[in-house]
Amino acid sequence: MKSVRSVLIASSLFFFIGCQPAAEPVTPTAAPESAYETVGSIERADPRLDAVVPADATLEVLADGFAWSEGPVWVPSMGAVLFSDIPNNTIHSWSEDEGLGVYLRPAGFNLENPPGEELGTNGLFLDADGLLLMANHGLRGITRLDTANFTHKILVDRYEGKRLNSPNDLVLRANGDIFFTDPSYGLEGREESPIRELDFNGVYRLTPNGTLSVVTRAFQNPNGIGLSPDQTILYVAQSNGQEPVIRAYDIQADGSATNERIFFDASELNAETGRRGGFDGFVVDAAGNIFTSGPGGVLVLTPQGEYLGTLLTGQATSNATFGGDGSDLFITADRYLLRVRTSTRGIGF
After folding, report:
1. Cβ–Cβ contacts within 10 Å for residue 325, how many?
2. Pairing mode, if any, of strands 233-238 and 222-227?
3. Between vectors from CA 173 to CA 91 and to CA 161, what angle results, nearest 5°?
């Protein structure tokens, strides 16, 4: 296994401009079930973190060797976490009993002339029926997986007749609304891609009847997206080191998002720590705390946007989700799938 320092140097330059590292010639392998190696450390900036992440918590390496791991989601019916390896066009599964496996390949684009190098899925989420919803980079849309024959149903791939860029992350409201982000990361050349049809990177709301509307065009690089436990606040993260912010919006009764504001700005923290980069995916716990991938690893924020500390992974970090009994935090970080046992629980557990 590479040292933490070498992995950080190799991968961070790509992450900070929103690009995933190129695949290394390493075959993904599950860690031994009897004992998991650990990486990184925990930076405790506020004593309140101790009530959320125990003092003896560690970052366990569950599996290793991915090109760029992303978009984890816990699937209760499987007792497993699913996550994307975008460049390798694969969705993997991991469980304590079964270890690492391939769940779906190809996960996204499966034809000639792909739109870019990121062929697979990114963010994953379960719908009310337990079916897998995917922010599908390769297929340039939001898709739902039919597990009877492992085919995709495209829920949306166009806005006003123009192809979406490459949907990145998504979250589902109880009423069936899907909010998702659509940067250009999945397109060769990104903003300059000859097949790009939209002139902005939007945040969208897709209603159950198929109506697609723009929530905001305020982001240059919209990325992670999530909801508060009561589903009245929408959070959107930006993966831009020049403007490392998470914005918040109030969700109205009709589903519209208003009162745009900065929830957290990492500029000062980056300056103090010497870290660089913006935010990627994140997860919200049942108490409203936000565990967001960002400079250094996974930052822990209170519902008021106060910084408590960072789970320092030692490498570019993409996303996180809760699983297991609800207190296990699974983290996708470059070549790794990690786990941290917390003192909190995810929403719905």
Report:
1. 10
2. antiparallel
3. 75
The strands making up 233-238's β-sheet, listed across from edge to edge, are: 222-227, 233-238, 245-251, 257-265
Of 143, 155, 131, 12, which Cα lies nearest the Cα of 82? 131
Query: Residues near 239 by Cβ (< 8 Å), separated by ≥ 6?
Result: 18, 183, 221, 223, 224, 277, 278, 279, 280
* One-letter identity of residue 138: G
Tens of pLDDT, residue by residue over 228-256, are: 999 999 999 999 989 999 999 999 999 99
How crowded is residue 274: how many other Cβ atoms within 10 Å of its Cβ? 8
User: CA 145, 221, 85: angle at the middle one, nearest 5?
Assistant: 40
Residue given tokens 């490498």 in the structure block? 315
Position 28 confidence tier, pLDDT thresholds 50, 70, 90: low
119-145 pLDDT, tens digit per residue, is 999 999 999 999 999 999 999 999 999
3-state secondary structure 80-121: EEEEEECCCCEEEEEECCCEEEEEECCCCCCCCCCCCCCCCE
| Residue 272 φ/ψ region, left for φ over 0, alpha for ψ in the -120 to 50 degree band, beta for the rest | alpha
| CB neighbour burial string for 64-100, b if at least 16 within 10 angstroms, e if fewer | bbbbbbbbbbbbeeeebbbbbbbbbbbbbbbbeeebb
CATH of 4-341, one of 3.40.50.10860, 3.40.50.720, 2.120.10.30, 3.30.420.40: 2.120.10.30
As a whole number of angstroms, the distance between CA 177 and CA 327 comes to 26
Q: Is the peptide bond before 87 cis (omega within 30 degrees of 0)?
A: no
Global pTM value: 0.90
326: left (phi over 0), alpha (psi -120 to 50) or beta: left
Q: What are phi and psi of 230, to 5 degrees?
A: -90, 5
